């Protein structure tokens, strides 16, 4: 597996921005977020860059960071943000200016001429009383008062009088002062500002200077004040809205709450300002994290939230959340609208039925918090373009329980059905325990049992944690067989870091990264002792496996295998994994990762089927590549005693190892992606809140669920590219695109069906392919995986890379050549190869 499965390409390569640019529902006025424009966080800079087509592109004002932590994103707004950002109040034409100059001189005349030149509606007044009357009748947008002399008018009193006039809070008042005052006496300027002036400008008799000053006042002061006025009108409208409306900043701190929210929840707006959403309104961290996963990627989110009232009662309501960026690229505010028609005030206050626990003998109420997590996860799966029947069934069962709150027996039966459906193999047949009691002939019992059951699976507990002392076969000792060059050893010291530079290892090892990284990881996890195998055999095995990867593949080569192995090792280091993985599990996970794509031809299974390849015929067009990878792994391993890493294992342990490796390799087939994800979510998102934190909770006690974890682990390792640091992510995207382009070209030459028509090197947008891949495949899977193993850097990199891909797409960096230019300029790093002469 490399990138997005062909089954989803049509979804991925539609304009991926469409899902992010939905207008707010008619319950949310489209101008609800205009007030957020007044934020002064980072301003964008536009720079014209002329490419071969001489087109202009938006560019950053500084180079991109190599890692998400290096700098804050500051670029021009996306179409979504631009649309909201351009919403302005009705422009006042012409702008009304009141000029108050007690004495006629060149300065007053020039300001009047400048106002006329800009087509302002200017009124020149010489007395303070007349100026106040004029303002009260016309409510000017701009007032310029001559403060150079204290004899003409009392400018301080005039300014305060204007400020006391209704509507004046949106008027800009400017004081004209002498040059020497402006340059030498800050106390005078400070006094003016304290009197109510917005700013002061130095006297000038130069017409150009005055025109420039008025122009800057128009765009820098008058327009923001006008926007603020519109803001107030919108807030007034929201206060009349029946739906609950909340505005927070990017840290979920309250900025605004409408009256409907105050009335229903019992809070006052002043009580909530500055407090976080979790502190005041939504106490469930899981719900906030689920919502934030979309908002932090600049995507709208819809779902259910449990709100906490001031009386400590809780209500469940439907929420629509919209991110907004007032400046820069990252969201700066969130707008949340709660639908009052969806309110369920009794959902949490009344239990859904106190039933006997299926896990314990005591009576207990089902955990609503964990139930919500599973429901929200299933809701995400339901929203995806593909749907699994099991997801439908579980949703229907949840609805049935909601309709039967008073019938404890029905609820108990429905929960028992759900518990059965969460098992990993629904149609694996087992002979009933009392079969022999009902059958007089033992031979019949044996026959029926053999026919109805699968081939016997090795017991995980039989020898998983068995020490090598329990066996009489060869026991290896620590040796000094494997010695890598010092520069490689230094790099391998960081091999368990998620930021590990796999491309640097590829370069240093001369495209043999699997040998070096594989041995380092095998020794770290004590694989020689687990497999009762010496280091030389392990090294020979890695050498042969790496030789059977195609080095001419741009993506599916031994570097990809080494990268997947490194990711698997990183996951195995997490405490949750250590608590459930036996040594044989760790060893076979690393083996499966190293060989999961061995002998990959650089073409998809669909291509092989369409071209009637030998492999497609051999495997009947079913799981072609993955079956080949698993079979070849054991054919090579068992075919030569010098590389047979399993030769010293007894039969039972070997069966465990073989089953683990095959199962994990087959799990990388993407056509079953949503099936594996749905199983994982259903099993591991139901932890009961009253279970002690340190205790392994129920699902992990079942061997089949440990298998689910291993499947999810290798799946995440296989497609971890979007969750790596940006420089690695971009290089992997370039490589997979190059390989897909080659397949498309070959299909066209041979007249075969084009499996991925959007991957045409002349028209494909690489950023859009990555955006779609994250939207449809990566995001939900890695959120579920992170919730299980607690590895937040996965989501951090994923979200930051997602934003960067959107930026690249907006800037027009879409082709292979564009990406390579970025790698050698903005993303310059030793890991990126220099463009060839053909680029």
UniProtKB/TrEMBL annotation:
Residue sites binding Zn(2+) 2 per the record: 597
Molecular functions (GO terms): 3',5'-cyclic-AMP phosphodiesterase activity; metal ion binding
Pfam families: PAS, PDE8A_N, PDEase_I
InterPro entries xrefs: HD/PDEase_dom (IPR003607), PAS (IPR000014), PAS-like_dom_sf (IPR035965), PAS_fold (IPR013767), PDE8-like_REC_N (IPR057304), PDEase (IPR023088), PDEase_catalytic_dom (IPR002073), PDEase_catalytic_dom_sf (IPR036971)
EC number: 3.1.4.53
Coiled-coil blocks: none
Keyword terms of this UniProt record: cAMP, Hydrolase, Metal-binding
GO process terms (BP): regulation of DNA-templated transcription; signal transduction
Residues of the PAS domain: 230-277
Cofactor(s) annotated in UniProt: a divalent metal cation
Domain PDEase: 480-812
CDD domains associated with the record: HDc (cd00077), PAS (cd00130)
Residues where Zn(2+) 1 binds: 560, 596-597, 718
Keyword presence, Hydrolase: yes
Binding site for AMP: 556-560, 597, 718, 770
Tagged with keyword Endoplasmic reticulum: no
Catalytic residue list: 556
Pathway named in the protein's UniProt entry: Purine metabolism; 3',5'-cyclic AMP degradation; AMP from 3',5'-cyclic AMP: step 1/1
Family the UniProt entry places it in: Belongs to the cyclic nucleotide phosphodiesterase family. PDE8 subfamily.
Protein name: 3',5'-cyclic-AMP phosphodiesterase
Species of origin: Brassicogethes aeneus (Rape pollen beetle)
